[in-house]
Amino acid sequence: MNTPQTIHNSIARRQFFEGAGLRLGGLAMAAVLGNQVRGDSQSPSRVHPALPGLPHFPPKAKSIIYLHMNGGPSQIDLWDYKPGLVDQFDKDLPDSIRQGQRITTMTSGQARLPVAPSKFKFSQHGQCGRWVSELLPFTSKMVDDLAVIKTVHTNAINHDPACTFVMTGSEVPGKASLGSWLSYGLGSESNDLPAFVVLTPTWSATAQAQALFTRMWSSGYLSTKHTGVALRSGGDPVLYLPNPDGVQPSDRRAMLDALRELNQERYSQLRDPEIQTRIAQYEMAFRMQTSVPDLVNIAQEPASILEMYGPEVTKPGTFASSALLARRMVERGVRVVQLLHRGWDQHGNIAGDLPAQCRDVDQACAALLQDLKQRGLLDSTLVVWGGEFGRTVYCQGGLSKENYGRDHHPKCFTVWMAGGGIRGGMELGTTDDFSYNVAENPVHINDLNATILQCMGIDHERFVFPFQGLEQRLTGVEPQRVLKEILV
Predict the structure, then answer these.
(1) Which of 5, 33, 224, 274 is most exposed, with minimal Cβ within 10 Å?
(2) What per-residue confidence (pLDDT) applies to 260?
(3) Could you give the domains of the chain?
């Protein structure tokens, strides 16, 4: 009989064991064990299998690496070449272009909205003849592998709701993220690493970067075991993962077995599914004591590979280092790897900060594609690059031909995709002469998410989770389309 005293004693007992060091860093270890929690090395079964019936059809991609440029990269200065803007320098943005659309409070008080052409040179690359900025000399060599989408648009105009929208399909916090959905539906091919891992590399822009919120990799209404596991960019990737001095792996195993029995007893009393999640988290943490040190040890990587990623690849926490880790993760069966690179918010000083941001990521992005390709992994790995919105053609603050700033612009921005299921050398959509409005082929954020799910073998309309009386979907309740134009 569950009297208040027995329940109190049970809680106190668990708190004692947690305080004795069994949290292994308080990991929010997302992904893993399903019903098998003992980690029997003799069992060949996956500890985190896919849901029954998934994937819906044979997938083109088995894993995804999402390269999110937090802050909003300037499409006009990187991908959306508009040579005609040179003649519009310092002229007011025509009302016929703005069309009364809302703008942020950061520029709504300006007396003028002067047009700022890109100061950077563009040239054509690849067999497809793609126009690319001089700021991306390495990525430009890979354009025949990319599908460049120039007409992505979003509902949000400020960072937090826009980032939330990109990653969860909704501006409203509390929804499940893309990575969590994929963890929930497809599980992981790795028994020793989470299904969904998040990396937050360092950045070079001098301006203060926007905050990152955990809801970008949260499981929302899904089980917390599908929350992304964020590895630290410096020091130990996971705090307190190694055993303390004097504690042997066999000791840890015995302690976890005892804790599991206590948690199972508690589960039999309350039937709370989060108790089973906690058991799985402890077990994954135990497995990660071996798998994570091996993952981050790049000493055995060939010199040619390290050179390809650039000089910062051996510096933990850089984008180059994170990109290499992303390849090593998908190679080991991780389903989703998400890199969030901050600092792409050039309200001023584009001349200084945008080149620095591009130097952070350009060589590493190209190397990641090359690395995956030469290992035969690009065909089964979907790579996505983009931000939460674009930047305005008009200048924020002072304007000169050598420097300027740009405000947030949600009406059109550029995302590229490559790898599993994607037709390389493609360009989808065109914008007007000011890169302000979509001229042809608009692509909503949730069209993009529907296409990602399609590449992973999932019909976005059938991929649902019942919550609060609604069959929740990553792509929302409004009709969305799969971008079949860019699919093989």
Answers:
(1) 5
(2) 77
(3) 62-245+288-486 (3.40.720)
